[in-house]
C-alpha cells in the first residue's frame, strides 16, 4: 500500500519535527571506502555538511541532527512556518534567490540577488505566497539537498539515476517537551 504524501501527513502551517533519510541506489557509495571500485568517497562529507549549513541558513527549518553513512544519510528536521510568517516580502525573496539563484558566479556560487530580481518575487502575491510556503517545506528541503548531492560540488549534472533515489519516509516524531529540548545545529 502506498504511503501518504508529506502534504497529507504534515499541516504546512504547524511546527513539526520529523526524521528523514535518503539512500543511494545501484551500490553507489555516498561516503567511505567502496569495496567494488576501491575508491574512497570521504571527501563528500565536507560538501554535504556545507549544503546542510546553506539550507539551514535559508530555510525556515531547523536542522536538529544528522548522520551521514556510507550509502545513506539521516536528518532530524523541525519546520518553522511561524518564523517564515514573520519575514517581510523582500526577505522571503532574498532567501529564495540564494537557494535557487537566477545568476551564479564563476565558481558556481549564487550571486547576491539584485533589487529587480527581489522585486519580481516580492511584487507578485501569488508567487510570494508559494515561495513562503516552500521555505518551511520538508519536501523542498529534501528536493534541493538531494539535487545538490547528486550534482556534486561543481553543480554539474550527472546521471542522477545512477547515484541517488529519494526515499524519504517521514514519520512524525512525538513533540514531548522533555525529549525535544534541543537547539538547531546551525542557525
- What CATH architecture of the domain at 6-87 and 135-165 do you see? 2-Layer Sandwich
- Count of DSSP-assigned helices: 7
CATH homology superfamily name of the domain at 6-87 and 135-165: Transposase IS200-like
Q: Give the CATH level 1 class of the domain at 6-87 and 135-165.
A: Alpha Beta
Order of helices and strands: HEHEEHHHHHE
Strand count, sense and barrel status of the largest sheet are: 4 strands, antiparallel
How much of the residues is beta strand, in percent?
5-15%
Helix content: 25-40%
Task: Give a brief outline of the structure.
This protein is α+β, with helices and mostly antiparallel strands and 187 residues long.
Structure description:
- The structure is a single chain.
- With 187 residues, the chain is α+β, with helices and mostly antiparallel strands.
- The chain has a domain at 6-87 and 135-165: Transposase IS200-like (Alpha-Beta Plaits, 2-Layer Sandwich).
- It is built from seven helices and four strands.
- The chain has helices at residues 6-9, 44-58, 81-84, 89-99, 115-122, 125-134, 138-151, and strands at residues 17-24, 61-68, 72-79, 164-165.
- A four-stranded antiparallel sheet has the order 2-3-1-4, with helices on one face.
- Strand 2 (61-68) and strand 3 form a beta hairpin.
- Helix 2 (44-58) runs antiparallel to helix 7 and helix 4 (89-99) crosses helix 5 (115-122).
- The longest helix is centred in the first third of the chain and has 15 residues, at 44-58.
- It is globular and about 55 Å long.
- Mean pLDDT is 79; it is low at 158-171 and 174-183.
